[in-house]
Design brief:
Layout lengths: L8 E2 L3 H13 L10 E7 L2 E9 L2 E7 L8 H15 L5 E5 L4 H5 L3 E6 L4 E5 L2 H8 L9 E5 L7 H13 L3 E5 L9 H11 L6 E5 L21 H20 L2 E7 L5 H15 L4 E5 L3 E2 L2 E2 L2 H9 L3 H7 L2 H7 L7 H6 L1
Helix pairs in contact: 7-8, 9-10
Length: about 350
């Protein structure tokens, strides 16, 4: 005799979360601790399905074997999206293994990137809306793009955009929306616009949720031995090469060299290989130095955490300095960032 199933319920207690961990791990997945919502469906007091939401990303969507194909995943997804909408999310993503992508396609999720180890799917027409919203920014010619966090906008960012502008008809300065940043997007965009106002062929815009970094990639479904940072980079490059670059006539991605961080040097090399798949070039610009010191965001954060204004002034343009003077850089937000 079958028992009635509960509607999707919040999993709040330690016992419920432990049950979710066991269910997720029984499906050969890793349980992630950081989420905004964790929902589950019970049968006679036993957890038989669960899923989580971290921002706009839905993750850890699993059901017990005897209930697969019965619609439980759809119920959990629907409740997670409802809660996400209440929290202000306007679209939702799922990252999953290629073999499970059809399950989510039946729920209205469309693949944006199909990687060898992962598929990125989106619910709704978010990417189309993002591109249409930037149609007025599209320029003909051979264009380039730089991706900068502008957290805050530094002389290094400015130099990179200047070099990119000299090599392309138009350079798009893409500022990521999502990730771990000290400053909100509106401030970072404004700093980037002020800092590039003297560059006539620079166009600053946000990247929407369509620039992916390791911090925003849920790698819980990857197999042992897979490299999460590498997979995230390749998905990001494919998303850029397949969708964003052709819309804005971008033929070149410009990045700064990384003399200090071997991981970033490796990132640039991998990005070069992946972008070539889409017929795009990667150009590396030597990072700017002040005296014998390379400019990077960590240096700026450290100076702000110490309230060392002489050092800050050495690393940022006047427009950024004026903005920072209106804040309290010695506060906990900068110490944490440093």
């Amino acid at each position: 005799m079958s028992h009635p199933l509960s509607p999707p319920l919040p999993l709040i207690s330690r016992a419920d979360r432990d049950a979710a961990r066991r269910l997720v791990e029984s499906c050969d997945l890793r349980f992630l601790e950081n989420f905004d919502d964790l929902m589950g469906i019970f049968e006679d007091g036993r957890l038989v399905g669960c899923g989580a939401r971290a921002g706009r990303v839905l993750e850890m969507l699993v059901v017990s074997p005897e209930h697969r194909g019965g619609g439980l995943v759809g119920e959990i997804v629907g409740e997670l999206m409802r809660r996400g909408c209440e929290a202000g999310c306007t679209g939702f993503f799922i990252f999953t293994r290629p073999c499970t992508a059809p399950t989510f396609a039946r729920l209205g999720f469309k693949p944006l990137v199909e990687h060898e180890k992962a598929v990125l799917l989106e619910h709704g027409n978010g990417l189309l809306g993002y591109l249409r919203g930037r149609a007025a920014l599209a320029r003909s010619g051979s264009n380039g793009a730089v991706v900068i966090n502008a957290d805050p906008f530094s002389l290094g960012h400015q130099y990179l955009v200047e070099c990119a502008a000299a090599r392309t008809d138009t350079v798009y300065v893409l500022v990521p929306n999502e990730g771990r940043f000290v400053l909100p997007l509106a401030d970072r965009l404004e700093l980037a616009r002020r800092g590039t106002a003297h560059i006539p062929n620079a166009v600053v815009t946000d990247a929407g949720p369509y620039v992916l970094g390791p911090a925003t990639f849920p790698a819980y479904f990857l197999k042992p031995g897979d490299q999460p940072d590498q997979v995230a980079l390749e998905i990001d490059a494919d998303l850029f090469g397949r969708h964003i670059a052709p819309f804005l006539n971008i033929t070149t991605r410009i990045v700064g060299t990384e003399p200090l961080d071997p991981a970033t040097r490796s990132y640039n090399q991998a990005l070069f290989r992946r972008l070539s798949k889409w017929g795009l070039r990667l150009v590396e610009i030597e990072r700017k130095k002040i005296g014998d010191r390379w400019i990077n965001t960590a240096h700026v954060h450290n100076a702000l955490a110490r309230s060392d204004w002489r050092e800050v002034e050495a690393f940022v343009p006047p427009s950024t300095l004026a903005f920072l003077n209106t804040l309290k850089p010695g506060s906990a937000q900068w110490r944490a960032a440093a």
